[in-house]
Amino acid sequence: MPSDPQLPAAGVPEDGVHDAVVPDDVAVEGAGALAEPAETPAVELSDIHVAFGGNVVLDGVSLSVGSGFTGLIGPNGAGKTTCLNVISGYLRPGAGTVRLGGQEITGRPPNRVAALGVSRTFQAPRLVPNLSAVANVLVGAHRHFRRGHFAELFGSGQARRQEREQEARARDLLDTFGLGTNADRPAGSFPIGSQKIIEVSRALLNDPSLALLDEPAAGLGAEDVDRLVTGLTAWVGRSDGAVVIIEHDLGLISRLCPQVAVLHFGRIIRSGRPDDVLHDDLVVEAYLGADFVVDR
Amino acid sequence: MSELSTRLEVELADERGIERTLGTPRAAPPRRPLLLKAAALVLLIVALFALPFVVNSYLLFVANLTLVYAIATLGFDILVGWSGQIGLAHAALFAIGAYGSTIAYAHGVPFLLTLPLVGIGAALVAVLIGFPAIRLTGFFLAIATLAFGFVIVEGLTAADGLTGGGAGLSVQIWRLPGITGSASTYFLTAAVAVVTFFLARRALYGRFGRTLQTVRHLGPLVGSLGVSALRYRLVAFGVSGAIAAIAGALYAQLQTFIFPAMFDFNLLVPFLVMVFVGGAGSLLGPVLGAAFAVVLVEIFQDFGDYQAIAYGLALMLAITVLRGGLVSLGKEVRDSRLIGRLTGRRAEKGAVQRAQ
Amino acid sequence: MLQSILSGLEAGSWFSLLGLAIVVVMKAADVPNFAMAEIGLFATYIGTTLAGVGANFWLAALATVAAGIVAAVVIDVTLMRRLAGHGHFPLLLMTIGLSLALNALIGRIWGQTARRFEAPWSGKFLTIGGVDIAWAQIVTIVLGAVAAIAITAFFRSSMGAQMRAVAEDRATARLVGVRVGRVSGMAWGIGGAIAALAVMLQAQSTLVSTHSASSLIVYGFVAATMGGFVSLIGTFFGGLALGVIQSLAGLYISTSIEFAVALLAVVLVLLARPSGFTTGLRLRDV
Asked: What is the CATH number of the domain that holds B304?
């Protein structure tokens, strides 16, 4: 694996803060290719550029994600959430394309992207506190309701049936995450860890082909993390969907994700198996600073 | 953090402010035994329609007015409580209903037809108001919609050829076939109230209501669920406008004479009082709020010069004391420490300790 | 047209001053005070009463400002402070109730007839290039600007910084040692003084009454909205603009819809800038 101890060290100030330059001649092994070459990737980013004013946040990000779990890691400010924002339609990139299952979706608004089968969660859970957990989760199935609100108003049989079906799915999903018994309690009465899990359930009720989870385990206790992992694994097993997880808990990432991509200063600097990636010099340097690399 | 995230945070912070001020709707009420519910409902409806035979005409007027206000407040609550948008054009939309129905009826449109007509008309106007205001939140939305509302009422005054201008307009009363006197108007109002509340219940405690609340709480984030915040916000404007207009038409029938000054701030403030004091986000709230406002005015009727002072003071007291509105009064009394001490129960917070 | 602009600036000065009062109290005490105009009216009536029994104009004017401060602080200490924690919407309804009660109370004490606060320069005109300018207008416009500058300067001072800290985050300010209660009281006092000034200036030029107070407050809130409820400059110029637009609308279109036109202009502003004009010294960073 190529590593160049002098390059990062040169021009690096004492305190370890360094310029956002990854030299071109450092080959980034398998950068961005995390899907089997034969199948269509669940989502594919091609050369995404995002800048705010003069501030470049994503600098030519290319990423290909297949089914199952993919971790997206990197130090704070690397642009991970921005990547999710671009995929989910909250941000239009200055350049580059986003392909969902081969279909280009760059620049489409968030609710259209969601209707195509993309779900995402946000760093802070936003639930309706006085509605029950089930009711909150049910909103996630929005695109599955074929009949409009008028039909419900007048009690059409099909509308009623639809509601029952989706409610059963919602309860089922909450069960998978271990929250089934309290599903009818107001969401606001759950501790914050459970609320985050409810939010994840809401995202999954969409039956997405791609779920984007932004630090779903942040602030969760060990039990809740276990619940989360169990539920997610079960869901992925059943639905064969793709899940991209942003996390700082590298242990969790190693446990869950067979593939990991590392984002640093707006570029993917490494990708591959967690074992390889997490011990890579460049990655260590990105997280901990050049001194740690040099000292080894 | 990225500019987008900052902007989202600001919008959400604003929303939290609204949430803090308006309170949140209650979850659907617990499923009581169907027979009990049906019996209670039948009893209520019978009582409602039996009223004209038991009370004098003054009390009937008060009851009628309360029902009209209750309907209007329900519409207001859908906008303010459920969708979380402080749109202050409500009195103006109410006025559109009053004037629209009266003028249409006077020009030969069958009265009952005027109701859905003004409903649709006001819904369109409300959406037109809501659309440009969609980027505004909180106070700014309030002021912008207030401005539109003001312009509408001014417009009604200005179109004096049609509306009689500032001098007012006399309302032709429609009577249910075979019924004379004010009982007819009352029955009409009661019927509309029952239908409106029934439909509202289905909508608000079902998918529409929970989606609307999710739009309110999640703001722009709701797109990630495939929900179009814009669409739901505009629908909320439209529905609240339609309900306001229908209530306005009934108001005109009750008052028999309407003039623009009836629909300005002097009406908007009572609407605000009703929606807040009653308790935003429930079905009983608008009724209690309407009753409160009407009763308050009646009580202080005889205070003469001190009426306004007393009304102001009573208002202040009500708002100070009733944090969640009248509708939460029962719960607040039950949960209060005093009652708890009397019954030896510790006040619960109701947190789910372990999810299992 | 110049005449119109001038009277627009004059009225606009009343609006901006009231708007500034609202913004100060809103941001330092977190209360949208709908009774601000009534406080100003109350204070002004005290002044006119004193003037009526022969007191010197300057004494009466001073008494007015003092009365405004006292009334506002009393309201804060006895009423508003106990309501900390209520959201903006219930507080607004509260202050609406307060304004109704105060308005009626003032009417009981002083009656409903309109009054003026005669100043030494009332009724005197200056003629420049054929245009008659009332001294009252000049005084109003100048005083308005001076007051706005003074307030801005105040907020750059250390006490002002404390007030901005409280506006930004009450809890943290308290932790850092800021006496939040005292700061609130000061904010109310300043608001009361400015409101008294606004109505007093209005009263030297035109008639004021319980009715005029009821409409003035709406203008004040609109001016505050133009400044996004945070910016002093935005509020000040917003108020002036409101006055001028209204005046010109009255001149070129008709007086009956001048308010409507002014409001529509405000709506246009809001559509272009959803949070108002939040430039210059902000009482709080958005």
From this structure: 1.10.3470
Residue A122 lies in a domain: no
End position of a domain, from candidates A156, A185, A207: A207
Which of A190, A207, A224 finishes a domain?
A: A207
C97-115 tens-digit pLDDT: 889 889 989 988 998 888 8
Total tally of structural domains belonging to chain A: 2
Instruction: With CB atoms and an 8 Å threshold, state whether B320 touches C105.
Output: no
Give residues 321 to 350 of B whose Cβ lies within 8 Å of C: 323
Output b/e per residue, A266-289; b: 16+ Cβ within 10 A: bbbbbbbebeebbebbbbbbbbeb
pLDDT tops 80 at residue C186: yes
CA atoms within 13 A on the CB side of B249: 30
Beta strands in chain C (DSSP E): 125-128, 131-134
Contact criterion met (CB < 8 Å) for B214 and A110 = no
- Tens of pLDDT, residues B161-186: 888 888 888 888 888 887 778 889 99
Please indicate, yes or no, if residue A53 is contained in any of the structural domains: yes
ipTM of the complex model: 0.81
Count residue pairs from B and C with Cβ separation < 8 A: 122
Residue with tokens 């309690």: A185
Least CB-CB distance to A81: which of B5, B24, B225?
B5
Per CB-CB distance under 8 Å, the chain C contacts of B8 are none
- Whether residues A291 and A214 share a domain: the answer is yes
The partner residue sitting opposite A181, judged by closest CB among B3, B224, B356, is B356
CA atoms within 13 A on the CB side of C104: 16
Main-chain phi, psi angles of C215, to 5 degrees: -85, -25
Q: Are residues A166 and A263 in the same domain?
A: no
A221: containing domain = 6-117+209-295
CB contact under 8 A, C264 and B147: yes
Write the residue in C32, C98, C270 that is nearest to B136 by C-beta.
C270
